[in-house]
Amino acid sequence: MALSTRDIPALGRPLLVLGLVVGLSAGSILLAERLVKQGRSSLTKAQADLAEARKRVQRSGEERDTILRYVGPYRTLAQRGIVGEEQRLAWVDALRTANNEAQLYGVEYEVGAQQAYALSAEAGAGGLPVQQSVMKLKFGMLYEDDLLNFFRVLAAQEVGTFTINQCALQRLVSEVVRPTNTPTLRAECEVAWITIPAPAAAEGSS
Question: Taking the model in full, what pTM does it have?
């Protein structure tokens, strides 16, 4: 079938429709490609978010297990006065008890200000803010063994933990003379009461 110039006006509308369809098809293809790329990017991000969420859930589970594992020992240390605020009144009560049970003649004491524990590294504290309060003690004894007995009874009170920095003994009377109900020895000791502040207190002071 031959076309003449007279048929061109009649083909104008079909050609316009064809051009429009071709343009829309091309545009649809480009849009589809863009949507596919966006979909892939969204999928990748969603997969990364899911992986991170799984890691957080796993970490939270591990943290929960750690807390459950150590909460008992931590509470025990807090009850014994090792973790938390200083328990100076409890220390004094323990001194009185140790004095009575060791059958001494009274204990004089003096407590210094709290300060950083100098031997934290040697004690394996692992960076914990370990504190100490140095207490100077003076008391009379009848026998040398009374010294160890006194500190054993003091430690048994479980009102904190302490280290004995030094002790000096002075004989008041000769070994020949053993007066009844009178001390024959005088001890002067220096102990350090050790305390680890609770986490909230340690953060607040930093």
Answer: 0.61
